[in-house]
Specification:
Blueprint (H helix, E strand, L loop, with lengths): L14 H4 L13 H17 L1 E4 L5 H14 L4 E7 L20 E8 L9 H7 L1 H10 L6 E2 L7 E6 L5 E4 L6 E7 L7 E4 L10 H8 L7 E3 L6 E4 L5 E4 L7 E6 L1 E2 L8 H8 L4 H13 L1
Antiparallel strand pairs: 1-10, 2-3, 3-5, 4-13, 5-12, 6-11, 7-10, 7-12, 8-9, 8-11
Length: about 290
């Protein structure tokens, strides 16, 4: 199986060349300043499920990332579907106005992870061990690893003008993203923190938000160079339709199991095709199961 996590050519990109370490001392984990930065991120995640660190990446690196993303955006795999907030199919007897039965259009593109040059700046940001350590600590994980899946490891999300990313809960526990391109208007992340829990789906409160209740709603823009850590599994959220231009963000995927990748059927459902590594994963699971 190919190893997509090793790339010696990114060694020229040190932590201090990629990130604003004067403001965010990623490379000084024992310093007081690092502790303050970490505590701020933890507080945001623990209270409102979101931590935003503005201008986290150096401006010249942001520009290089934007150029790299722009060259790849035309090759994004586009998804268009009507989905409920849970990405599920409701039981037949579900009331029409129930959140499980509330479907909205979703259209966006994703640049596959295998499209990024392994000596490029986006891959260097993804592979940076100081960033990975910080993300793990902020999210209360003992250790995280960069995701080895050849397609889903890191992606650029392309949201065209007028295309809303409708209300939903994430299937994963958290997301890590950087802003690359913000639209002239719209393109806002709107979210209601801690709306459901493991014990309670809180459908009544979800329905109120879907019906337009903005009482507990929070709004932010992910601007170029901003880092966002987000617990979307229990936080209802959407990205409003960009207006005037498209919105782009970089998504980095980290996992607790360093050997984990997805199966071929899931890859085909998401990307329209599977990589040989996905079929190898199928064989591994069949042999172990």
């Amino acid at each position: 199986m190919a190893d997509f996590t090793t790339d010696l050519s990114t060694t020229e990109f040190s932590t201090s060349t990629l990130f604003d370490v004067e403001t965010y001392p990623l490379n000084q984990p024992d310093s007081d300043a690092y502790g303050i930065m970490l505590e701020q991120a933890i507080t945001g995640l623990d209270t409102v499920s979101c931590a935003q660190l503005p201008n986290f990446i150096r401006p010249e690196i942001v520009e290089a990332m934007q150029r790299e993303a722009a060259e790849l955006a035309d090759g994004a795999v586009f998804h268009e579907a009507n989905l409920n907030p849970y990405f599920s199919n409701p039981p037949e007897d579900t009331p029409e106005d129930h959140p499980l039965n509330r479907f909205s259009p979703r259209r966006h593109g994703m640049v596959r992870g295998d499209k990024f040059a392994r000596d490029g700046v986006i891959w260097a940001v993804f592979q940076n061990p100081d960033l990975c350590r910080f993300v793990a600590q902020a999210l209360w994980y003992e250790k995280l690893y960069t995701y080895r899946d050849p397609y889903a490891c890191t992606n650029v999300n392309v949201q065209p003008d007028g295309c809303e990313f409708a209300w939903h809960f994430d299937n994963n526990d958290f997301t890590v993203s950087f802003g690359l391109k913000q639209s002239d208007r719209g393109g806002d992340l709107e979210y209601v923190p801690n709306l459901r829990s493991r014990e309670n789906e809180n459908y009544d409160a979800v329905k109120q938000v879907l019906d337009g209740d903005r009482t507990n709603l929070r709004t932010l823009k992910l601007r170029p160079g901003d880092l966002q850590l987000f617990r979307g599994g229990y936080t209802l959220h959407r990205v409003t339709a960009p207006q005037g231009s498209e919105r782009q963000s970089l998504l980095l995927s980290y996992v607790t199991n360093p050997t984990d990748i997805t199966t071929s059927d899931k890859a085909i459902r998401i990307w329209g095709e599977a990589h040989p590594d996905h079929f190898a994963r199928d064989e591994q699971l069949a042999q172990s199961g």
